[in-house]
Design goal:
Strand content: 5-15%
InterPro entries: AKR, NAD(P)_OxRdtase_dom_sf, NADP_OxRdtase_dom
Strand order of the largest sheet: 3-4-5-6-7-8-9
Organism: Streptomyces sp. NBC_00119
Distance between the termini: 31 Å
GO molecular function: oxidoreductase activity
Pfam family, one: Aldo_ket_red
Protein name: Aldo/keto reductase
CATH superfamily of one domain: NADP-dependent oxidoreductase domain
Radius of gyration: 18 Å
Number of strands: 9
Bound molecules: NADP nicotinamide-adenine-dinucleotide phosphate
CATH class of one domain: Alpha Beta
Mean pLDDT: 97
């Protein structure tokens, strides 16, 4: 399991990023777990899970501070992602929020900055803030999160809106609604889809059918659930504060699911049979 063998996924620019990254929601909130969480994040980077996803919302900045500490001296190895809260997402607020994130992350630049979800500010305002940040070289790419097809169509019709790089959405075996319309739209337009909560915050792991597929493959349920997301051409950012779990999760990037496994998973977790509004956690 070397970093070199990691699967990648292309951004619209053609730049390749690790398809399997790391989330950070709820990390940095418990002092007793801090050292282990830092070790887990650093191990993930060692193993090639170099996309690190955080947000100003997580622990009111505590997750960003943890990431800043974990990545000290390693910033260049990582594709760093953070998010602006919708309430901050007017033009000036977006710039100010990003500067706050950069301070907590001890970074000069984010690789990707996302609107966390759509709120009251017009998308034009957020887009203007993102454009200011690109010009100031404080972010390299911008994107969105929790935007369904209609919102994406509206966004990409705005001047400069077609520069959106990523839509980060809830996607896993038990949440397949985006396969009906959003995922085909992303494939058609080249916008990269990134799955959050790819193991449904651990709830998926209790499903018997997943366990059976995993056992037949000599893999773990987590590895199968993550490998399935990657098979769909979607990036995944599982979160773990445990080095053992990170090592296990990394194994998913080397696991290719044969047709029989995919069929068994379709049976247990059927794809959508009609339009399904985008779900959020
Ligand atoms: N854009 C958005 O609105 C949004 C929303 C939700 C999440 N996110 C992002 O997506 C990331 C991932 O989603 P998530 O944190 O909601 O859920 P998740 O990654 O689906 O699940 C995280 C949970 O699974 C456990 N876990 C991880 N690996 C495991 C393993 N190998 N075996 C057993 N348990 C394991 C973790 O516990 P341990 O720490 O004990 O391993 C944790 O409790 C977030 O951290 C965040 O960065 C974004």
């Amino acid at each position: 399991m070397s970093a070199e063998s990691a699967r990648t996924i292309a951004l619209p620019s053609g730049e390749e990023i690790a398809a399997l990254g790391q989330g950070t929601w709820y990390l940095g909130e418990d002092p007793a777990r801090r050292e282990q969480e830092i070790a887990a994040l650093r191990l993930g980077v060692d193993l090639g899970m170099t996309v690190v996803d955080t947000a100003e919302m997580y622990g009111d900045g505590a997750a960003e501070e943890l990431v800043g500490e974990a990545l000290r001296g390693r910033r260049e190895e990582v594709f760093l992602v953070s998010k602006v809260l919708p309430g901050h997402a007017d033009r000036k607020g977006t710039v100010a929020a990003c500067e706050g994130s950069l301070r907590r992350l001890r970074a000069e630049r984010l690789d990707l900055y996302l609107l966390h979800w759509r709120g009251g500010w017009p998308l034009e305002e957020t887009l203007a803030g993102f454009t200011d940040l690109i010009e100031a070289e404080k972010i390299r790419y911008w994107g969105v999160s929790n935007l369904d097809v209609a919102d994406m169509v509206e966004l990409t019709a705005l001047p400069g809106g077609d520069a959106v790089a990523v839509d980060q959405v809830l996607y896993n075996l038990s949440r397949r609604g985006i396969e009906w319309d959003l995922l085909p739209w992303c494939r058609e337009t080249g916008v990269t889809a990134m799955a959050y909560s790819p193991i449904e915050q651990g709830r998926l792991l209790k499903v018997e059918a997943l366990g059976a597929v995993a056992q037949a493959l000599g893999a773990t349920p987590t590895q199968v659930a993550l490998a399935w997301v990657l098979e769909q051409g979607v990036a995944a950012i599982p979160r773990s504060g445990s080095p053992d779990h990170v090592r296990e999760n990394r194994g998913a990037a080397d696991l290719h699911l044969p047709a029989e496994a995919l069929d068994a998973l379709d049976e247990a977790f059927p794809p959508p049979s009609g339009p399904t509004p985008l779900e959020m956690l």
